[in-house]
Amino acid sequence: MTSQVRGVQLARLLGQWHALPGRRRSPDYAALAAAVRGLLADGRLPLGVRLPAERDLAEALRISRTTVTAAYRELRETGHLASRRGAGSWTMLPGTHRVASTGLWTPLDDRDMIDLGVAALSAPPQLVPAARAAAEDLPRYLGGAGYHPTGIIELREAVARAYTDRGLPTSPEQIMVTSGTQHALDLVLRLALSPGGGVLVESPTYPNALAALSARRARITTHGLAADGDGWDADLLLGSIRQTRPKLAYVIPEFHNPTGHLMATDLRERLVGAAHAAGTDLVVDESFVDLPLDGTPLPPPVATFDRHSRVISIGGMSKPYWGGLRIGWVRASAPQVQRLAAARVGVDMASPVLDQLVAVHLLAQGPSIVAARRIQLAAQRDALVKAMADRLPDWRVTVPRGGVTLWVELDGPISSALARAAEEVGVRLAPGPRFGLDGTLERFLRLPFTLPTADLEEAVGRLAAVRYDLDRTGRPQWREPSVIA
């Protein structure tokens, strides 16, 4: 986490901070304060960070210092800023906020919000029977201490079988069970990445992966994905690995989050070869591998082409099953798994045995559960695409062949402003800049299709109204306050 943000950095994050909905014209200091609150709400501006001095920010934004002073005063009044004379001002949040399911801070009174910031399904009906069956299995574990750093053997065997069924022979010794996919990534980074190490990621990419890398003080470089077509530019991706020779490369080849792209077989093979030649370890996030739609065939796992233990695969049950079941895993060589387990002991010892037993029972019913999920997601995806075509025809989207999200290209660089306006009408969005670095991707928006069809259609209707308001009055004519002596 950065302890201080400079004026030019904050200006870059703020982007089009004055683009507020036409239904409520605000003075520029109020618009600036609202934009800073928006950065705090969607996680792009961390808590406890010292904001730039008023003069520094005024110069970076090319506005008067009076405006910045008034904005900082409003942020202090709303509980988003704490200041101490001579020491500066730090970001904070008022006590009326809580942590939402996205991990971001939201007001306590937003229970009726249509939350399109979360790309996850509700629990399947098979979860409760699986939990009952797991409770019946639990007694045979109660005679031991309950610590299994690599996971209970039944679950490791089940996960290993799933990889073998995909054409990648795997033994239980190559599997470590974790408390979710994000936990798996964190453990891999602890083992494989020293502070300040170089990491190559896609742009856009999963925001929580960026947060994990920032916590490790990684030097992050990016290679861009196209919004349409095949997504990855093979020459750009492989050239970036050869030129920067990062310690790690983090990729999401199956129904990429947020774009939904599926990496082709030949690029997977070339990627592993380039990584080996550059001395780069590949961390492959397979969170969405169980969710191809429309009968889309899956290419072989990236690790199929690995001959030198350069590929570490991570996955979990959050997307096809339920996010509340915190079960993930790492697939790597057996020696790597043992090193990960040793590193884990200093973090959380092991995953809960009962949760792992629930996972075993769900995976035993996996084919029927996942088949129903695919039918549900395909119908909700098509309903969301149709609603946007009817109500927001200027927005462009390439319909993904799997996963749970649409990556929408908007009709202008308005993503953050749209998210702020949508919050006022009861829709929470994940604006494009959350998926990149330094405030870019303002023309894009991630929309998951994990909610019921009626909620998705209602959300699109509200977004269409908000988008109309953004255009209706044009950009407000901002004026500096008059000075009367």
Write the layout of secondary structure elements.
Blueprint: H1 7-14, H2 28-41, H3 54-61, H4 65-77, E1 81-84, E2 88-91, E3 97-99, E4 105-107, E5 114-115, H5 127-137, H6 153-165, E6 175-178, H7 181-192, E7 198-203, H8 207-215, E8 219-224, H9 234-244, E9 248-251, H10 265-278, E10 281-285, E11 311-316, E12 328-331, H11 334-344, H12 353-364, H13 366-391, E13 396-397, E14 405-409, H14 415-424, E15 427-428, E16 430-431, E17 444-448, H15 453-472
Parallel strand pairs: 5-15, 7-8, 7-9, 9-10, 10-11
Antiparallel strand pairs: 1-2, 3-4, 6-12, 11-12, 13-14, 14-17, 16-17
Brief overview, please?
With 485 residues, this protein is of the alpha/beta class. A hairpin with a 3-residue loop joins β1 and β2. The protein is globular.
Describe this structure in words.
The strands form five sheets. Strands 6-12-11-10-9-7-8 form a seven-stranded mixed β-sheet, sandwiched between helices. The protein has a four-stranded antiparallel β-sheet with strand order 13-14-17-16. A two-stranded antiparallel sheet has the order 1-2. β13 and β14 (405-409) form a beta hairpin. The chain has 485 residues and is an alpha/beta fold. It has helices spanning 7-14, 28-41, 54-61, 65-77, 127-137, 153-165, 181-192, 207-215, 234-244, 265-278, 334-344, 353-364, 366-391, 415-424, 453-472; strands spanning 81-84, 88-91, 97-99, 105-107, 114-115, 175-178, 198-203, 219-224, 248-251, 281-285, 311-316, 328-331, 396-397, 405-409, 427-428, 430-431, 444-448. α7 runs parallel beside α8 (207-215).
